Every structure is written in C-alpha cells, then in structure tokens.
Amino acid sequence: MDGRKRSDIQPGQRVDIILKADQRTGRRTRGVVKDILTNSPTHPHGIKVRLESGQVGRVQEILD
Fold this sequence. Notes:
Layout: E1 14-19, E2 29-36, E3 48-51, E4 56-62
C-alpha cells in the first residue's frame, strides 16, 4: 500500500519513508511509525510521520 491515506497508517507499523533531504534522490528510509504528523485524511505526496528513530518523512510504502 502507498502512504497517501492517513487511515491506512497506524503507530507501530513498519514503513518506508522519504526524508526531506532525500526527496531529489528518492532514497528511502525504513522504520516503525511513532507519530502521525499530517492532520488531513489524505496527502498527494504521502502522509508525514515520525519514526521511532526520530526521523521525519513522508510515507511511500506500508510494509505490514
């Protein structure tokens, strides 16, 4: 699943995100969702989340 719908994402899920610094390269970072930062129900570039590692980025793929 892609990460454009907020209802699809729950804390504790494993996801791939793109960090702001990696938007040009498209390099993904894998981690576990700690907080959901986007308030709107959808976002065309992916829902913004904070991982348990503290990194913040937009969800590109939901792994579980």
